[in-house]
Amino acid sequence: NLAVYVGQLLGDNFSIGGRYLISQADLNQELPDIPPTATGLNQLEGDEEATLQQLALTLNFQHRSGVFAQWASGWYHQNNSAYPDEEFWQHNLTVGYRLPRRPAELRLSLLNLFDTDYRLNPLNLHANLPRDRMLTVSLRLNF
């Protein structure tokens, strides 16, 4: 795995950020206890390889009143040896409000704005992404 992060403040209320992550995974399936003459053994054994690239871009707004918003876009590209390659974008929008000194936060998020489905090979670890457009509401309380 290799990850690179970058962020920049833009004035008092805005910031942007980016993250690039690449991960390589190999799976070698061997069954040494089964004799090599067994029927169908070549279908059970094999090597599989997958490389996943992820790019995350964010634009953040935060006002001193407590109102905040974020646009987040994620690009995913996976090369696979045993499955078709996959490439897609997902975009998320979040708005919310934080009380002064942050004892509570209310957040509304619309995830996967453009309803993008995907077929990533589970050989690479990745976040559990929504397959359909999804609205989430969260209330965070800090004691």
Descriptive report:
It is a single chain. The protein is an all-beta fold and 143 residues long. Helices cover 3% and strands 59% of the residues. It has one helix at residues 41-44, and strands at residues 2-10, 14-29, 46-62, 67-80, 86-98, 104-111, 134-141. A 7-stranded antiparallel beta sheet has the order 1-2-3-4-5-6-7. The radius of gyration is 21 Å and the shape is elongated. The two termini are 36 Å apart.
Q: Which structural category do the helix and sheet elements fall into?
A: mainly beta
SSE string:
EEHEEEEE
Helix content: under 10%
Within the largest sheet, what's the order of strands?
A: 1-2-3-4-5-6-7
What is the first-to-last residue Cα distance? 36 Å
